[in-house]
Design brief:
This protein is α+β, with helices and mostly antiparallel strands and about 90 residues long. The protein has helices spanning about 45-50, 75-90; strands at about 5-10, 10-15, 20-25, 25-30, 35-40, 55-60, 60-65. It has one domain. The radius of gyration is 13 Å and the shape is globular.
Length: about 90
Amino acid sequence: MWGPSIIGFGHYHYKYPSGHEGDAPLVGFSPRKAKISLYFATGAQREHLLANFGKHTTGKACVYINKVADIDPEVLKALIKQSVSFLQETYPNQ
């Protein structure tokens, strides 16, 4: 668990040039009341995959879905793999 409502898998430690740093899951989700929040790494590859994902909306760092039946599970798998690979390459030695 990451906080009171995020179910996360794996972890990485980030540090930005500004000096801000912290820990976060490689991927995660949160079954909120209104929508399910999905947490993936951002970037061009994510945007390409989301084009074929199904019914969703995006925020700054989250992808929101109403229900799993609205999305393509194969694209979900690809998003998870892409996020894990990207974050492990970006933040090695975790």
